[in-house]
Every structure is written in C-alpha cells, then in structure tokens.
Amino acid sequence: MKDEIALNMMAVQQRIMETCTRCGRDSNAVRMIAVTKTVSAEIVRVAIQAGAVLFGENYIQEAREKCGMLAKYPVSWHFIGHLQTNKAKYAVKLFDLIHTVDSLRLATELDREARKIGKVQKILIQVNIGKEASKSGIDAESTEMLIRSLAAFPNLSVRGLMVIPPFFDEPERVRPHFRGLRELRDSLNKSGIAGVSLDELSMGMTGDFEAAIEEGATMVRIGTAIFGERQ
Fold it and tell me: Tell me, what CATH number does 113's domain have?
C-alpha cells in the first residue's frame, strides 16, 4: 500500500508538471491537496510519509479524529465539504484553510469563533458557477457583494475562490466552469476590494484537474488518483 500510494502521488505530480509546462505555468504555483474523505488515519499517515503535505477533509467529525491521531505531523488541513454554522467552532480550530464559505451567516460565525481563539481564519468563497440547485455555493453575481462584506471582518482573510462544477465524463465539458471562476476572480481583483487579494483558485479533481490547471487552478483536490476508489 505504501509503495502504491507513493507511486500514485508521483504520477499525479508528474501530470501536474507536464500540464504546467504545456500551458506555460510554473508548476510550483499549483498545489496538490490529497482528499482523504473516508480514508483511514493509517493510510493518511502513509501518504504523509510519501511526501503529501496538504490534506482535504469533507466532514468535521471525521477530520477531528484524524487530526488528533496525526497531530505530530507538520501537515496542513483544508476543509472542502459543506460547512454548517454550528460546526464553525471546530472548523477554525482544525483547518488552515476553509474552501467552502458561501454565505454571510457562515462567515459571521467563523469570524466570531476565530476571534475567540485569536486566529485569522483563511477562507475561500465557494461559487456555484453552474447554478446547480443540488450544489452549495453563492451565485457569481452575488460574490462581490459578499466579499466586500467579509473584507471588514477582522478575523477572516479571503484568499480566493472555489468551485465544484457539474460532473461530466469529459473534462472539456467542465472547462467553461473553470474558466468562468478564473474570469470572475480576475474581475474581482480588478475591482479593488480593500484588503482582499484573491490569489487562490481551488478547482479540479481526479477526472479533470489538467483542464483546471490550464484555466488557472492553484490548488487541485485529488482523491481517487491517489487512494483509489472509495469503499
């Protein structure tokens, strides 16, 4: 298992490097987040030993257990699932970056909980580019208003945008959603929101991360290509 995970990670990193070379980007500007939903702490430990340093979790309770068991390792934990406001107090204690902030209500709670522990919580704004009723995320048209509101929160730092696009078997069908997020990010940066610099684009998973990188992703969320199909 250790060798398999190490080889899988090497293969993903090679694909990232090749994609960056192909589209003229610095491969150091793209980070791989190992998505560990349903992956045991022991397997995460194997991934750490193979060189993984960024991990994405979808569920608070599962993350609490893993973070506790793996606390001695100098890795960074990211929250990439839907976050309920009543779990904000746990999220700010566990995660370096929360990818899925999509409302003023959730942001207010995160700011309040972060203030209690003297932390400035880094966040991304999840945008529902595809306007899917089944997906979380704020509408693209409302994103600027939300970010302008959050810029005044002393214990939040908005770092960029995140998207979970509609699922398609063909990466090219997903590409317009990635491009739309990048264009939204660029437009927001040009609007000059005081105190906000949107550097990060969290987009792309196992089946489409190369298209995401070509469209400007700075973080790709990879689970299956590293750990195999979920049980």
Answer: 3.20.20.10
